[in-house]
Amino acid sequence: MTTTLIGSCSNEGDKATNTSVETEFEYKVDKFADLEILRYKVPDFESLSLNQKKLIYFLSQAALEGRDILYDQNNKYNLTIRRTLEAVFLNYAGDRNNKNFEEMITYLKRVWFSNGIHHHYATDKFEPNFNQAYFEMVVRSISPDKLPIKEYGNDVEKMLKAITPVMFDKNLYAKRVNQTEGEDLIKTSANNYYEGVTEKEVDAFYDKMRDPNDTTPLSYGLNSKLMKENGQIVEKQWKVGGMYSAAIEKIVGWLEKAAEVAENDAQKKVINSLIDYYETGDLLTFDEYSILWVEDTESRIDFVNGFIETYGDPLGIKASWESVVNFKNLEATQRTITISQNAQWFEDHSPVDPRFKKDSVNGVTAKVITAAMLGGDCHPATPIGINLPNANWIRQMHGSKSVTLENITEAYDKAAQGNGFNEEFVWNDEERERIKKYGYQSDNLHTDLHECLGHGSGQLLPGVSQDALRAYGATIEEARADLFGLYYAADPKMVELGLLPNMEAYKAEYYKYMMNGMLTQLTRIELGNNIEEAHMRNRQLIAQWVYEHGKAKNVVELKEKEGKTFVVINDYDAMRGLIGELLAEIQRIKSEGDFNAAKQLVETYGVKVDPKIHKEIRERYAALNIAPYKGFVNPRYEPIYDNEKNIIDIQVKYDETFVKQMIRYSKEYSNLPSLN
Ligand code: ZN
Questions:
Q1: What local confidence, expressed as pLDDT, does residue 24 receive?
Q2: Domain co-membership, 19 together with 81
Q3: What span, in angstroms and rounded, lies between the C-alpha atoms of 226 and 215?
Q4: Is there a single domain that holds both residue 651 and residue 595?
Q5: Based on the structure, what is the number of domains in the chain?
Q6: 71 and which of 78, 302, 600, 647 could share a cystine (Cβ 3.0–4.6 Å)?
Q7: 478 CA distance to ligand 1 centroid (A)?
Q8: Helix (H) or strand (E) run with residue 237 in it
Q9: Ligand 1 centre from 394 Cα, in Å?
């Protein structure tokens, strides 16, 4: 289905009722640094009831009110820096047409994209391509009342003195999330989850709380900053009346409105429980909320709003704030219902040791959703699949909810058509044709399998802690889910269930996975660096492991053609066998909490980069002029009122540029002080 061009209405993914307005939809919005900004459609929003539209609108507002929280979580000075740059952008009256100014605006756009001064994915600090003296000059030229100086004694110089080293000194706050083996991961990470404490102190603080015999442990430390105050280590909780209160109060305000238009009682309970949690900060309430949330599978509209994912903390304890508002894509959800209905079959037939399998797979609910609003750590960079809640015991006892964001993957797919990528990196026409024919479909299926079966499969042996794999835990978990998906994508059961058209289709996914894991994902890594991010480590781990272990039988090769390196898969069947073997081993590591084996696997296959191939891939990619990372502008929801100020309709608008949206958000949702 990827053969048609953007703008054509014959695409089978589009409705037959495609109007000419829709065909003019412009997916591409902006491009700078290593980033491209796209736009996503919210199909079928118009067909929702007024109440459902209102619910989405209120939840969308709640999704945006927490934006400042994430900036502050990512680094203590992010809000000051963002506001200073925005003040310059909006008010600087001098020459705006020179290299320094342009570079400063690019820097600001990067800050918006990453919710701070560190790369959203690599987590290292951006280098400003403008000079410090210039920056200070333009800031001093701005009227002080436009600058964020309140927290700096209303003194512009004091504020500048605080932020210029943060921006310009390479060594200060160099990395947001440092995973380097052997270093103090807390002291060397630039996030704002901890202050004045060492990794040892953090471990000791939370080890004291954890009881290995507790079968329903709280997510200790999830919603707080840990810091020293008068020599004592204290937690500053993120709640109404605590840290980030001003933003959380706004979120709660919108949630209260949302509760009034909830679709049903179950959903109303979910919303009220979340409000309760925000008001008390009580982690027991958070677990209660998570259970209510995972059990509400009937509602059409759904949302995530809170301190959820822990990727931003090298120890995986503290959660960043995020939100996704969405509604079920009824037609496409049929696909994931089929997968879920067969979850037990998949668990029973997986190649892992029976001791690590679940006897009964609990409520794996999966759905395909239409994202309606993205906020916090889900914006502008966006996940394409989500599986929650994260607490293992809740997943085991109550199941998990898994979603695929199909309007987002569709936007990616549409924007990538005709960009020359497959022509450059895919070995031959046969593979290219297969990717063209089945790539999008098999990719979506892999995401479904990853989210709704992979993460939900398997179990820990009694007494094994969820955190046993420490810094390697996230990579191993992602590998587990990916492998489960890859293993079953090639199962005849897929064709039998009507999820893939034939036994050729999975090969498109296998090829893309190997090509990405061994070669093309390196485009995202700066020369000289190793791989840090958990999903990327996982992909290389799998691809390299399969390559190395298939060498004797020549399963996968790296071949050269005109000085260029390509992946060639000689034996897809054998490759599936290797995927199954690795899945069994990764599940064993997870189930037994085998830290040493996790470390060995990840460090051997997932981290190091061949410098020669790295350089080659970067050069070939650069010639295509494609941005390696993409993110999105949100739609805008406009309520229509009657004379009594009642909302009578809500319209979705796609009329903002990236800059316009970011400036508006900074104006309308600027809820926190510059220092917190
Ligand atoms: Zn995952």
A1: 67
A2: no
A3: 25
A4: no
A5: 3
A6: 78
A7: 5
A8: strand 232-237
A9: 17
